[in-house]
Design brief:
Layout lengths: L1 E4 L2 E4 L9 H16 L10 E2 L15 E2 L2 E2 L1 E2 L2 E4 L2 E4 L5 H23 L4 H16 L3 H4 L5 H14 L9 H17 L27 H4 L2 H10 L1
Parallel strand pairs: 3-6
Antiparallel strand pairs: 1-2, 4-5, 7-8
């Protein structure tokens, strides 16, 4: 699968039964297409991250493109979200908490200048809450209680403006439900089939999950909220 956003290109491959041929062929085809269309690949900026939860993980041959070996990494930043190979979110949450706390300084300064509360709320929503909620539907359900408390403390600190602010759990729930509704109304969405109505027509069939990681991910959580 090829994901492209502006000049950012990401290739996602699934390796089955230790057969890497299809995965490597995807990269070869990308390199050929770039060569044919006068697009130069910067191999120095390319990285490879492998996600594998098997107990006995085989060692894969390093990926090579244009005679350059692609560096293997444990995490990488994808459109503002830091994804780790263990699919845990401490690194990403560390980053957004640090960024949000830096921006609290400006909120304090604006409060000192006695700006109207409505403008302070607008500033918080645009500059701080937007950072805390980057891809929140992806990672919040799998965040640890400790990390959620760290995030929420940032929100509580911002309440120096003199009014309560929406808790992150509420924002997460609202955004998951909103996104789920859009998927159910769009038959062309690749995940539309996951939202299967039960014969009663009032609830969706719950997804079968074997791990806590899967159960806390977006689609099981979305279906649970839609049924709630």
């Amino acid at each position: 699968m090829l994901l492209k956003f502006a000049d950012d290109t990401t290739v996602i491959g699934l390796i089955r039964d230790d057969d890497e041929s299809a995965y490597r062929r995807e990269f070869e085809q990308l390199a050929v297409w770039c060569s044919q269309n006068n697009l130069e690949l910067n191999t120095l900026r390319m990285v490879e991250m492998i996600v594998d939860f098997r107990r006995n993980t085989p060692t894969l041959t390093p990926l090579t493109i244009l005679n350059s070996t692609v560096a293997a990494v444990e995490s990488f930043r994808f459109l503002g979200t830091t994804i780790s190979q263990d699919l845990k979110w401490e690194t990403h949450i560390d980053s957004i908490v640090r960024k949000a706390q830096q921006r609290l300084y400006f909120l304090r300064q604006l409060r000192k200048f006695n700006l109207p509360q409505v403008l302070l709320i607008q500033f918080y929503s645009a500059v701080i809450e937007s950072v805390l909620c980057i891809s929140v539907t992806v990672w919040f359900g799998s965040a640890t209680k400790s990390d959620i408390r760290r995030l929420q403390r940032t929100v509580w600190t911002a309440e120096i403006i003199g009014c309560p602010l929406p808790p992150l759990q509420e924002l997460y729930t609202s955004r998951v439900r909103k996104k789920a509704v859009k998927i159910t109304l769009d038959p062309t969405h690749p995940a539309h089939y996951l939202f299967e109505l039960l014969p009663s027509g009032r609830h969706f069939r719950a997804l079968s999950t074997r791990t806590v990681r899967h159960r806390n991910s977006f689609f099981p959580q979305a279906i649970h909220l839609m049924n709630g």
